[in-house]
Amino acid sequence: MATVSAASIVGWVVSPVIKRMVSLVQSYLSSRYNWKSDMVSDLKNLEVALLDILLVVGAAERQHVVDTNQILLMHQMKEAVCDAEDVLDEFDYMLLKEKVEQKGMLKRIASSSLSIGKCFISFDKFRSELCKVLKSVQRVRSSAEIFVQVMALESANTFQSLQPVPTRATGSLLHEDVIVGREKEVGELVDQLVNKFDECSLSYGIRFSTEVHTIVGVGGIGKTTLAQLIYNDERITYTFDLKIWVCISNNFDKIRITKEIIACTTDGENAELTALNFSMLQDELKRRLSYKRFLLVLDDVWYDERYGDHINKQMWMELLAPIRYSRKRPGQRKIVSGSKILVTTRTELVARMLDSRSSFFLEGLGRNDSWLLFSQCAFGSRNPEDYPELKRIGDQIVQKLKGSALALKVIGGHLNGKYSDTEWDDVLHENLLTPNDMLTILRLSYESLPEHLKQCFAYCSLFPKDYLIDPNRLIRMWIAQGFVHQQGSNGRNLEDIGRGYFNDLLTRSFFQVLRRGDQTYYTMHDSMNDLALHVSQGECFRVDHGSSIVLPYYVRHLCLYVEQLGNLVINDHLGRLWALVVLNKSWFCSKVCMSNDILNKLRSVRVLDISGCCFNSLPEAIGDLIHLRYLDIRRTYYPLPATMSRLNHLQALFVQYHSCCSSGSSRSNKRKHPSNSRGQGSTSGGNFVLPESITRLSKLEHVNVERGYTVTLSSMHQSTCVEGSGEFLVDKDGPSLLQLKDLNMIRGDLTIRYLENVKSTEEAAKAQLDLKEHITKLFLEWGSYDSAHDINKGFEVFEVLKPHSSLCELTISGYPGVRSPSWLEFGWLRRLEFVCLRDCERWDILPPLGNLPLLRGLEIRRMDELKTLGPGFFGSSGFPSLQSLLLERLPKLEWSVVQNDQMFPNLRHLSVAGCPRLTEYPTYPRTLRHIAVLDRERIQVKTFIDRVELSRSFCCVVSSFFHVLHSHHLEFIENLEIYVNHFIDMSRTVFTNLKSLKGLKIYGVNRANTCSLVTSLWDENGNTVLPLALRLLVLQRCYLQPSSFSMLLNNLSSLVTLQLSECDTVEMPCPPVSLNCLRSLKQLHIYRCDWISYFDGSEALVSLEEMTIRCCYDLEFIPDLGDMPCLQKLDLYDCPQVMRLSKSGHQTALKELNIGSCIALSSLEELCDLVSLAKLSISDCPDLLRLPDMDGFYLLRVLEIYRCYNLRSLPQSGLPVSLERLSLFGCCQVLEEQFQRKEGPDWDKVAALQGGLADGMKQQT
């Protein structure tokens, strides 16, 4: 029988549980409670039993178990321990409950045992349960004693010490003749290694001249192979005098490593090193490397978890001391510099430890390279094209392996010589890797972790592959399960300690960073996910999407998808669960609710994530989950139930977005919900009100509400960490700002409204905003005010509402005062990145915001008395980081600094609206991308502006304000959008200055005024005034002259994208649109251009990849498909004059063809041999009689035909064997009757295909 790791059965969870229980029992024994003697005896017995079992389990975790009886015994001990932990937790819950209900009870427990009969009833009940557990634990302890004897007697047979994975040894030679991929990575790293770096001078002619570069990646990703490719590159051989390769692995031996480096420098001579100690070896190494430029590759370097950062670094600095320094050659002035050390490692910690100059984070192979490597291993010398079904399955396998070179080799090698679809399909849908494959390599990473990180990592097996991990939620789950410990933490709270755990796993490559735009996510590589499943198989169970549920008895942590909830109702093991996570694969609501039958069974659950479920109201039974510490839900329509006040162990509450309860939702017939008792507000709209009773939960530390909802803080009275968008409403007769005093742990956004109701400066000061260091965004709002007294009081309140200095964003609305508070005047908020000042009608002189070093965005709106933006506003720095400036409805505003190039050195976006006195503007620098100048009457034009981020200069302007553009703006603009609102006689010289222009978009806000602007794009001879390098031209709602427009196109030979939308003409009759010179055009989009009847010169469209034509009612012909050899997608909709599509030559690139509402189209017979076509969709073509012959449609997978009422038959030659989906609806009755009867020539064509396509057709006809 194969050996099984005991740790994988019980180890990672049982040892910490036992230790936690021992600590809890000891705390009870050492407490001031006046326990009954019997209770003390029971607690002591439990302590002793637990310590005995801990010794056995600890020893077993370091062994391999091979006997099934021993495994069963380990399970029994585990279950008894977990049951005992539940009972202890119930007792702890009882104490918390008593503390809430009668605060003086605990004191009376210590002083008198006669006056607290009620409490002793609870204790007796606890003791009764504890006795049952003690009996079970005592039986297990007896078995454990036998277990220990077996360990001693049969240590060589039954129990075997955990065999370490053999030390890895690698060399510099490549094992394969051909290496797939990595050309880009090799090129980039070789460039880093061969380029000379800036030397750092030291004294005595010695310089620190050897730099370190690191390749970081998970096990099996291909780090060693990449290092071998670099090592053997010709440029490396030419650059370095000496190349050295040493494999370190997880066995750090400084003497061995030094000897191996010396051995690589001997040039064939025998070096006698046996008698040399470490100091002598270092001197010898230093001598041999002197005066040489060398490359040292240290492969597979590990971070020794037994030591801290300092010791690890000291060990390596000592080893590399003779390597990282070099001297001058005799007689030379210059040092021999440029020596490099290349390190491969699994963890970023190593890069930091070695002071790496650069870290290269190696990702998986790309899609094409992954397929090439896999197919080489799986098919060998055979051609994958000869096995289309295996190729299809193989492609899916490759996608699941995420570019892991080792996994691709292992799985490909496993399938080599196997050509059965079933075998390949089994590999696709089962676990791809076994413990003998990749997990053997990755296990080293896991085994090297400290114990607390092992259990945290293993717990992550609950999350499916590609799951985006939220560190805040994961850390709170760890805390709820007791994985995070405060011992030796120097007073740090559990959340900060847990974040340290997460960062430790991240730097060790157990997690990966995934960036999408400005957002940062975390995920696990598929190989690491498999490893987590492997090491947690005795505790965690995950039901992947589409799988059936067979829940093992011993599982304590379960994750499944919401669609599978129904299968849990009949499961009797739910009462054993400590964690249940219910996921929803879609962002939208699942509409599936968890039944009360399931909720009532979760007697022991600590972590409950039901964010995948849909609840109008959270069941009151939630209050019965007395062990619950972590709750994650979607926002409910009705308030949270008052029974939540019974969750005395609850530590964290997360409320996520719920599409069923969005801010705009409403219900016409709102029923009164029974749990909507007094003190619970409605949760409709954008506000989310926590029940007042939640303040009784003394353990509640963290409330996180989706920022799309606003949490009303008026009912909060304790130092709970509320994360999200918090709102506090100051009421004249209600909550006072004093209630904010103890809410110093709130995180995220804080809004304070109705500040005019603050009664005094003292009240405002007691809010202590300066102590709320975790607030990132602060919104302060005043409402209406009448008198001068309100103005003075407004300033006094504003003055004392000084935020914490770490604030990032500040919005001030409705401030009634004239002066600025001192904390804005003197740079207290130096970390501010965004400021918005609005509706402050009397504020006439702004503070020196230009001195804020990090300010990136500034908005000033509706400030009636603001007169100037002058030196006091710009300060001494002049907004060094500002990128976006918006000025709106400032009727008296003028610049007092004009033509000053020192202002706004990084400004990119400028928007001005309703500022009539801003007749002159500062000279903006060349970083400016976007100008939007909008007068007050034309503010609605903003809605036409696309939100785009371009690489260089971008200008967006309304035509009536061209006068604000200085000549230096135009020269560097690459992308220009013009919104034509007024008639303008544009000089052609404006476009002549656009020397860098690559993209031009003209939008006709007022279509009639576009003609003069468009005609200015060419001169009297028809030559364009636009730069010939123009790549993008978009004309929307413009008047065109087709003859002149064609001449314009003939001059734009570099055009890549042409888009005409809703363009009319004043020229009748209309000549064809000439495409003769557009040989670079790749995208052609035409919408609602009725004047186009056909195109001329389509044979020039040799580069066109995508063509879309919609709603062109006079169009009769589209270009011949044979003239467009690169065309990949063609969309043709609502063109009622088009009768046919032609293809005279070869067309091998077209992948997708969509035709709709072409009522005159009668035949597609000419479209034969479209060898790359994957999708063909035809709809609403009532005259269509015949489809093309599909013999040559080798890759067609999707065929859709809707409402083609005259189509009588499918192609005579049948359908392609590659077809995966056929949708047929609304065709000729003769054709549909065949599918209803399941007989006939066309039915036979479908039935002849494999994959059950005919059965699917039955449901669609």
From TrEMBL:
Using the record's annotation, list all stretches that form the NB-ARC domain.
210-380
InterPro entries xrefs = Apaf_helical, LRR_dom_sf, LRR_R13L1-DRL21, NB-ARC, P-loop_NTPase, Rx_N, WH-like_DNA-bd_sf, WHD_DRP
Q: Which residues form a coiled coil?
A: none
Pfam families linked to this entry: LRR_R13L1-DRL21, NB-ARC, Rx_N, WHD_DRP
Q: Which residues are in the Disease resistance N-terminal domain?
A: 18-105
Describe the family membership recorded for this protein in Swiss-Prot or TrEMBL: Belongs to the disease resistance NB-LRR family.
Q: What is this protein called?
A: NB-ARC domain-containing protein
Its organism's taxonomic lineage begins at: Eukaryota, Viridiplantae, Streptophyta, Embryophyta, Tracheophyta
